[in-house]
Write a structure and sequence with these properties.
alpha/beta, 8 strands, 8-stranded parallel barrel, TIM Barrel, hydroxymethylglutaryl-CoA lyase
Length: 299
């Protein structure tokens, strides 16, 4: 049965922009965040407090949070890989923080420079700090439907990691098909392993659209009771470890799907569409949202 309402977690300002070449002006980042909030999106990932050597586009996250004109009812979150990142996020005024593990040892070593077990040890410290300061903590798991280095990923490992993250204090686990290789059958198989042990309201999906399967995977997840979807305005983003990865599923396309299904979400598709068009113009890149391109081309 499909949910009556779906929450959208807009990751464009962080996951979408972090892989862009060149420098993105602070004013453009803030304009995007403000436009997304004005469009009715209430969960916005605004930055990441990570080493700027590895993610230079997130080096100004303090300035981003300082410059946000906050909208009542909107939660502005940040990615925090360690205690230092958490302390920076807290000082900047992040409403929520997120930690990110991987369901592949090979990907964990490449992306986090440590094993899965070592990453969970690091995150436990962040989780303790979040509890001490009463800041909500979200968990990500990357490569849940496939790894660029080791191929297929076992759902059992995803379950183990998800349970550990929940035990630390994460209120929600976002399941990421980081390289976009999964299909509806893969999504179904993963959720069949997880849902007997973890209630659907503790899970979200974060699909990339490399092989054009993002919306199909999301639809299957919705049918199985998932009611939180991560997406990125204009389909911004991608995976630096997957050649040809086209990025996150576009928020506009998800909203178009939800509208067609009669599912409430609280966002204005046309406002999101124009926010996406503006940031793509500023980045001098094409819009990856099929719905936006179709709607914008109408007379």
């Amino acid at each position: 049965m499909l949910p009556a309402r779906v929450d959208i977690v807009e990751v464009g300002p962080r996951d979408g922009l972090q892989n862009e070449p060149g420098t993105i002006a602070l004013a453009d980042k803030l304009a995007l965040i403000h436009a997304l909030a004005d469009a009715g999106l209430t969960r916005i990932e605004a930055g990441a407090f990570v080493n700027p050597k590895w993610v230079p586009q997130m080096a100004d996250s303090e300035a981003v949070f300082a410059g946000i004109e906050r909208t009542l009812g909107v939660r502005y979150s940040a990615l925090t890989p360690n205690r230092k990142g958490f302390e920076r996020a807290q000082a900047a005024g992040a409403d929520e923080v997120a930690i990110f593990a991987a369901a592949s040892e090979a990907f964990s070593e490449k992306n986090l420079n440590c094993s899965i077990a070592e990453s969970l040890d690091r995150f436990a410290e962040v989780a303790r700090a979040a509890r001490e300061h009463a800041i909500p903590l979200r968990g990500y798991i990357s490569c849940v439907l496939g790894c660029p280095y080791s191929g297929e990923v076992e759902p059992t490992l995803c379950l183990d990691i998800a349970q550990e993250l929940l035990a630390m204090g994460c209120y929600e686990i976002s399941l990421g098909d980081t390289i976009g290789v999964g299909t509806a059958a893969h999504t179904e198989r993963l959720l069949e392993h997880l849902l007997p042990h973890i209630h659907a309201d503790k899970l979200a999906v974060h699909m990339h659209d490399t092989y054009g399967q993002g919306l199909t995977n999301i639809y299957r997840a919705l049918q199985m009771g998932i009611a939180v979807v991560d997406s990125s305005v204009a389909g911004l983003g991608g995976c630096p470890y997957a050649k040809g990865a086209s990025g996150n599923v576009a928020t506009e396309d998800v909203l178009y799907l939800l509208n067609g299904l009669g599912i409430e979400h609280g966002a204005d598709l046309h406002k999101v569409m124009h926010a996406g068009a503006r940031i793509c113009e500023r980045l001098n890149k094409s819009n990856n949202s099929r719905a936006a391109k179709a709607l914008l081309s109408k007379p």
